[in-house]
Amino acid sequence: MNFIFFIIIGAVILDLLIGSISSIMNIKSLRSEPPAGLEDVYDAEEYSHSQLYTRTQLRFSLVVGFFKVLLLLAFWFLGGFNYLDIQARELGLNSVWTGVVFIGSISVINTVSSIPFDLYSTFVIEQRFGFNKTTYTTYIVDNIKKTILSAVIGIPLLIGVLYFFENTGSLAWLYVWIFVVFVSLSIQVIAPVWIMPIFNKFTPLEEGALRDSIVNYVQDVKFGYSNIYVIDGSRRSAHSNAFFTGLGKTKRIALFDTLIDQLETNEIVSVIAHEVGHSKKGHIILGMILSTLHMGMMLFLLSLMMENTLLFEAFFMDETSVYASILFFALLFTPLDLVISPLLQAISRRHEYQADRWAVDTTGQGLDLISGLKKLSVKNLANLSPHPLFVILNYSHPPLLSRIEAIEEQIGANK
How far apart are CA 351 and CA 309, in angstroms? Predict the structure, then answer.
């Protein structure tokens, strides 16, 4: 055992502790009464239901987090990584395909170990609180599709990454970076047309008042899109959402059918305006740039640790390899990600405020946005009083009260 061993162990445990402490503090922050200013969001029964949902989800996440760390440590200390590496090497494949087998095996173990928790979350917790609409057949078919899709995309991607790292010298990280960015952008272009319809039915929004209102708004603000679609999200869940997907000519406005059922026309337009705000304010491009830079930094640091003997000794490996370096570095990178992730979350929350202001300014109907957000909070049993630490670590969107206060301030400024 060397210092890298203790760094990784410390990072894994620190990550678990920080996540667990924030979840426990979030549970303790639950209140019997709604926060001042949000008394009209829930009735008494709904509010109690939302608190129970939050408490149940957080306690479940604590169990899952501890189990995953225990599984990792047991697999690690019992020599599981080295055992899988030996078995993969004995197949007699070249180094790239050996890497595919090794990393693929780890992925299978991770997926299989997660199935019981996913089943419990879907068919017990979500079912208990009225969200789950997924049948066992749909669940099985979805997971078969996900497995096939992961293999179709993941295996060629992994082959490319391993090839570049093994054959292009000291600048391999740069070639891998370019390659991965190209693949990611390509997926964003084809996803709305070829990938997302594998799981959900996209139906053009029918003619009527809602479509007319959305079209009039996006034309007024000169927002380009290919079409407006309704997603059959109600087949799987009662949760609701609206988003844009795709790039260029494949950009689509997508509305969950549950959202259409839950909100009035003006409220839906305000939600769409918020999403348009993200595009008009450059948030989507900035997000892609930050993600790309984040990836580039990771790949550069990975190149410095590639086939590092101390790293492999820490994982009790007999031999070094490029493919195992990638896997082990992901664990070594945990301490840095603990710093970077909250920063990215903070940027995301700032963008949400900006998109809200855009929606208020361009629709002139800030009250519709507020009422829409309140309804969505009720329908999704949102926690109205999250602990600040939990928000810092996990919230990409500001809490409801903070958003409403900012929207009301913008309404006042526009008068």
Answer: 43
Look at residue 285 in the predicted model and tell me its pLDDT. Answer: 92
Among residues 85, 267, 352, 356, the one annotated as catalytic is 356
Tell me the per-residue pLDDT of 337-352, one tens digit each, with 9 for 90 and over. Answer: 788 899 999 999 999 9
User: Three-state SS string across 282-311, please?
Assistant: CHHHHHHHHHHHHHHHHHHHHHHHCCCHHH
Nearest CA to 124 among 136, 141, 109, 138? 136
Which pLDDT score, from 0 to 100, does residue 330 have? 83
Q: How far apart are CA 101 and CA 97, in angstroms?
A: 6
Tokens of 311: 């790293």
Q: Order across the sheet with 242-245: list the strands.
A: 202-204, 227-231, 252-256, 242-245
Distance in angstroms (rounded) separating the CA atoms of residues 312 and 322? 11
Tokens at 336, concatenated: 């840095």
Task: Tokens for 19, please give them.
Answer: 């996540």
Residues 6+ apart with CB under 8 A from 394: 22, 345
Examine the residue annotation and report whether 319 is marked as an active-site residue of this protein.
no
CATH topology for the 203-262 domain: Zincin-like (3.30.2010)
Residues of the chain with pLDDT under 70: 248-250, 335
Question: Is 46 one of the catalytic residues?
Answer: no
List 85, 126, 267, 275, catalytic entry? 275
- For 273-325, write each residue's pLDDT tens digit: 999 999 999 999 999 999 999 999 999 999 998 989 999 999 999 999 999 99
pLDDT at 240: 85
Task: At 184, give phi and psi (nearest 5°).
Answer: -60, -45
Which amino acid is it at 12?
V
The residues spanned by each domain of the chain are: 3-94+279-414, 203-262
d(C-alpha 301, C-alpha 329), whole Å: 9
CA 112 to chain centroid, in Å, comes to: 20
**CA-to-CA distance for 16 and 405, rounded, in angstroms?**
33
